[in-house]
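User: Is it possible to get a 3D structure for a protein together with its bound compound? The compound here is 2-acetamido-2-deoxy-beta-D-glucopyranose. I've pasted both below.
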Amino acid sequence: MYLKFLVFLTATAVGSTSAANLVCYFTSWTVYRPGNGNYTVQNLPADLCTHVNYGFVGLQEWDGSLVILDDDEADRRQELEHLKQKRDENPSLKLIVSMGGWNEGSEKYSHVAADPNLRQNLIQSVLDFLDKYEFDGFDLDWEYPAQRGGQPEDVDNFIVLLQELKAALTPKNYLLTVAVSGGIASANTSYDIVRLSETVDMIDVMAFDYHGAFDNYVGHYAPLNASHLDVTDLQKELNVFRGITYWIESGAPPSKLNLGMGTYGRGFTLADPSNTSLYAPTVGDGNRQAPYTRTDGNVGYNEVCELYLATYQYYWDDEQQVPHIVNGDQWIGYDDMRSIELKARLAKSLGLAGAMIWSLDTDDFHGICGNGPYPLINTVKRVLNE
Ligand SMILES: *[C@@H]1O[C@H](CO)[C@@H](O)[C@H](O)[C@H]1NC(C)=O
Ligand SMILES: *[C@@H]1O[C@H](CO)[C@@H](O)[C@H](O)[C@H]1NC(C)=O
Ligand SMILES: *[C@@H]1O[C@H](CO)[C@@H](O)[C@H](O)[C@H]1NC(C)=O
Ligand SMILES: *[C@@H]1O[C@H](CO)[C@@H](O)[C@H](O)[C@H]1NC(C)=O
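Assistant: Yes, that's possible. Here is the predicted structure of the complex:
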């Protein structure tokens, strides 16, 4: 089922039987970004990723049905048709529709997962969607079971929902995937990892957002490993290495795991510009909204390399194995080609199925910064398949 087109390119490599998964999220709202940040299906090369996850569709709580999340529903439907044309260019590309995400919250999902009739409605509307748009699978991004207004029963109800989805999708050869938390405490609260792993085709571990402006101190959004400044048990576990290792040690087979990596970063405003170290006090989000992503505390790699690197000071952290940049009271931690290569090497050394990328639109997709289009995603692709 997972044999890919790239098999032919890698078949001569010893021990390599199939191409690694490269699951890339396409987000529907990036068409509203201005200038070089504007990202549409037309920008997406059909052969870059093995799977494209279209995010997000939503859940309608009263009847459990799948809904398009945009006032411009007609535009979104046209976008789905354009994605389908990408697969005509590359028939091995898998198109997956993704439901949920942070902004959807958890309560609706908790309610629907607990009710057998609503679950059946959800499953039927997923099937209708997949048939209608000729997609290849369904991805559930419930963030997160038993958290954010959910209830303890969510852990079991999530599995029941997925089992019922799987039973309905498998006869039609549709894939079932989930995006899950890469934080140990969070994953421990939300998932029965063994049963989850038995039920779904792939697990995309969101190994990022370990730190952000929701904290009141400096921290990288996705450190590969701990720093000597991490002293408590919790501090030591908020990194990619510990997060993904927890999933494996808890019984998830590496062959179903994709390591999530970001093409973005998170920023802070320093309380004292002279203290830029990990855990230095901050006073909230990076306060300069970047021109494309236009979200407090968030920045795309494309914005960093195109607009910020010239005026910010670059630092590499040898322990956490990630970069950050500083200008005055602004501190931004992100991933670049060097750090994302190390993450891809970690995924490979752990024998994982591949990588998940959040998201296509914030890589340097125009190739403005001198390393070709999609330098981060192409770095991951090269390492996984070498
Ligand atoms: C983004 O690009 C699309 C497709 O070219 C175009 O229709 C849309 O108006 C652009 N949006 C902005 C904000 O420039
Ligand atoms: C998971 O949660 C249980 C119950 O709260 C707790 O006993 C256990 O230590 C936790 N495990 C980890 C790895 O956090
Ligand atoms: C993370 O750091 C620990 C302790 O220094 C080390 O044993 C481990 O190999 C490191 N892992 C990675 C992926 O660098
Ligand atoms: C920076 O802030 C941290 C956390 O409050 C503190 O431990 C450290 O001593 C500070 N460093 C400097 C140079 O002020």
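The chain has one domain: 2-263+336-384. Residues 1-16 have pLDDT under 50 and may be disordered.
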